[in-house]
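Hi there, hope your week has been kind to you so far. Please have a think about how the structure follows from the sequence. I've dropped the whole record in just underneath, so have a look:

_____
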Amino acid sequence: MPVLGTRIEDYITKPCRSAELLARVQVLVRNRAAAGRADVLRHGDLLLDDVVCRAWRADRMLGVTPAEYRLLRHLLRNADRVLSKEQLAWHLWGESRDVNAIERMVSRLRQKVDRTPPALIHTHRGFGYRLSLAE
């Protein structure tokens, strides 16, 4: 195939729907703009953009709340480390609130982030949570 070894990032066959073409162009533009920026965090197919405070997973915008964004950002900055519920509460609110609030927020965040496999947010029973590609 003549395109092997080139810098082609996507391919679409004709005929194509305009909605699909537009979606693919948006993904390419976002990925190109995000490459090398310090205000963009990545972990696998998870992308967080601090400029607009938005999160994407598998090229799908997640629609997280501001508090969920801060929680996800903290987990991502500490990827592969287990963070206690108390640590997460201190980071979000500056105090150790009821850990049940953290549990509820993580549950809502999982519904958005882990809709696309593999799961990224893992529970460490009796302690806290870890964001990781590995089980």
Observations:
- The CA atoms of residues 6 and 12 lie 16 Å apart.
- The radius of gyration is 18 Å.
